[in-house]
Amino acid sequence: MYNIIQLNDKNLSELQSIAQELGIKKTDSLKKEELVYKILDEQAIAGATKKVAAEKLKEERKVDRQQKRTRVTVKKESTDKVFTANKNGDLTKAKAETTVAAAKVQPVAEATKAPVAEKAPEAVVTTASAPEKAEDATPKRKPGRPRKTKTEEKAPIPAPMPVAKKEEPKKAEPELNFETEAPKVVKKVVIEDSPILSEPEDDFIPIEDLPTEKIELPSELLGKFEATKAETPIAPVAEPTPATAQRPRLRPRDNNNTPYNNNNNNNRNNNPRPVQQQRPAQQNAGDNYAPVQERRPVIEREKVYEFDDILTGTGVLEIMQDGYGFLRSSDYNYLSSPDDIYVSQSQIKLFGLKTGDVVEGVIRPPKEGEKYFPLVKVGKINGRDPAFVRDRVPFEHLTPLFPDEKFRLCKGGYSDSMSARVVDLFAPIGKGQRALIVAQPKTGKTILMKDIANAIAANHPEVYMIMLLIDERPEEVTDMARTVNAEVIASTFDEPAERHVKIAGIVLEKAKRLVECGHDVVIFLDSITRLARAYNTVSPASGKVLSGGVDANALHKPKRFFGAARNIENGGSLTILATALIDTGSKMDEVIFEEFKGTGNMELQLDRNLSNKRIFPAVNIVASSTRRDDLLQDKQTLDRMWILRKYLADMNPIEAMDFVKDRMEKTKDNDEFLMSMNS
């Protein structure tokens, strides 16, 4: 058998030879790929044919094996020799109700038949003097359930002799239970054919001319009985006393499945059962024999698989008003979803958790009546050990500083984008920068943010970046998620303002919690003008309305969002790059921009005139700058940039950008560009 990989590795000639062996015709006209699939199909057909033939042969052998075995059948209309005792004590022939065909008995039934043969002579002795034809009084035992013989009312009733019950497997011969009872009326017993589990053999040797007197049984029968008794694990039975000596009776365990009950009432009327004589015998039997417990097969139930300590979950914690919380998934923009993980109030208090904490831990499947996956064990909080997070300083009490570590946006070489080189040189970005990108419509602000984000991700993999898109187009969200190596959280323009506000709030809380644990976080917000509009929509009316319909208190929360950017002393920083829209024709946008105009410590302005002339990046170099850039640039770069800015001050934005772009395209990196200024 060849698989598809082995066939693909072979050349065409080898495949043709294999196909000829399998009986495939016209192999010369087939291509290699078609020939491979032809061979695979032929192998599958051949395998299936062999499997069907094997199963058919197995069934035939099973049928032949069953036909060789002789089954127990009952002929209702036929008669057999059944003897009853008359008043004189003679044995007379009576018409039997059932006739059982002679057959070989299963080895499983040997344990049930041998005690019957052993007790047969004793039963004959206790029934008064019998004629010499006593061999007919003990008819040959047949496999299956025994017959019930007719006796008169005054017949002496020996005590019952209970024997251990043996349970057979399913689909085997009907289970029989040894129970000694008083001779009952004759019952019609129909024994159904059942599959025989093993090869049958003779149960006992028939003995001819059995005398009526009590003598020792033949050695062959005793040996057979002892061998069967040793093989079958039956509970030991004490030697019966003369008062309780009785032939064991075979009674079907399940009377509902046989015609035993059909003739029960009729036979009981003909031969009433002497109950009073049987009770003392039963008491004696109870004294001599211990009760035998029925052994039932142990049913192994399939163990339910436990998922404890296997499933792990992570999410951003949102604490509800009642004290408990949920871990929200970033796949659903941190909103309520089916992936939410329940966090109990005790866990929140134990670990000192806050809204925005990124919790990772062990979860378990919900039990009956539970709706969410509960958090079982907390592993990490914001990437740190829970003991470290418990003693953290709140974000509001951290000391903010000017950015003193610069983000490297250029690797060096011709692979760096022009946007990253211009921003890195004229408006450097540091860790903890509060940058405001002032943009007119259609100036390429989204592309500029994408280039800056990819440059930071490539040069600073330790930084955690979040791209927060508020009130943007859905196609831009998809493009940003596929092209930027950052976590993209978006709320498109078709969503309500409440959703904008909620997503922005939980993203800011997540960034604060990461900064508290010493991480560097960068948030790209597009745009802060739309976010301020959303806050203005959801904020309650205060009665003080500014020009353009802006509520006086509506801009407080967006200012808190933008003002959260800071460089933290002794580790950690939150950098926010937000875009502000101007010249949109809306008075509200102008008011919002005026409110945010002096809050940032870095400003990058885009010019519509540059984008109209297809000059990208459309950065107004003269108007763009960074506060305290001396903390970010080295002294040599500062001196050269001072000369360059003095030279570009007399130019308009178009001339300045043309000059800088032309020189940058001729150099490999910014260092080479600054060195070329001497020439």
From TrEMBL:
Q: Where does the record place Low complexity bias?
A: 255-284
* Keywords, alphabetical: ATP-binding, Helicase, Hydrolase, Nucleotide-binding, RNA-binding, Transcription, Transcription regulation, Transcription termination
Task: Please give one Pfam family short name.
Answer: ATP-synt_ab
| Gene Ontology MF: a single term | ATP-dependent activity, acting on RNA
Query: Residue limits of the Rho RNA-BD domain?
Result: 310-385
Instruction: Enumerate composition-biased segments (Basic and acidic residues).
Output: 164-174
The entry's ATP-binding residues are: 430-435, 442-447, 473
Outline what the protein does: Facilitates transcription termination by a mechanism that involves Rho binding to the nascent RNA, activation of Rho's RNA-dependent ATPase activity, and release of the mRNA from the DNA template.
Q: How does it assemble?
A: Homohexamer. The homohexamer assembles into an open ring structure.
The similarity comment for this entry is: Belongs to the Rho family.
UniProt cross-references to NCBIfam families, sorted A to Z:
PRK09376.1 (NF006886), rho (TIGR00767)
**Protein name stated in the entry:** Transcription termination factor Rho
Q: What gene is this protein a product of?
A: rho
